[in-house]
Amino acid sequence: MSDKKYETVIGLEVHVELSTKTKIFCGCSTEFGGAPNTHTCPVCTGMPGSLPVLNKGVVDRAIAVGLATNCEITRNSKFDRKNYFYPDNPQNYQISQLYFPICRNGKVEIEVNGEKKFVRIHEIHMEEDAGKLVHDPFTDETYVDFNRSGVPLIEIVSEPDMRSSDEVIAYLDKLRETIQYLGASDCKLNEGSMRADVNLSLREVGSDKFGTRTETKNLNSFRAIKRCIENEIGRQMDILNEGGQVVQETRRWDDNKEYSYPMRSKEDAQDYRYFPDPDLVPIVVSDEWIEEIRAKQPEFRPAKKIRYKEEYDLPDYDIDQITAEKKMADIFEEAILLGAEPKKVSNWLMVETMRLMKETQTDADKLSFSAANLAKLIKLLDSKEINGKVAKEVFELVFKEDIDPEVYVKENNLSTKADAGELEEVVEKAIEANPKAVEDIRAGKGKAIGAIVGFVMKEMKGKCDPGEVNKLISSKLGL
Question: Contact 259/229 with Cβ under 8 angstroms?
Answer without folding.
Answer: no
